[in-house]
């Protein structure tokens, strides 16, 4: 055999501190995004289930409470027109 092939793994330099921080930061960011997505999905389904159960057990008197007058949004006072002579 005239040529010897080198089949060993190439030399990979050790990652620097900054590369390690970047790698773990990306993993933490991905984990945070997954948690946020799950937080949006899971409580909304639990909220719908818990809202229907207590509503069925309430009596009619408790659900229909007398309400006071509905507050009107502030209206600007109308400008008084000048009296015609």
TrEMBL record:
Biased composition (Basic residues): 75-85
A Pfam cross-reference name: UPF0239
Membrane-spanning ranges: 21-42
Localization terms from the record: Membrane
Basic and acidic residues composition-biased segments: 54-64
Source species, domain of life: Eukaryota
Family: Belongs to the UPF0239 family.
Protein name: Protein MANBAL
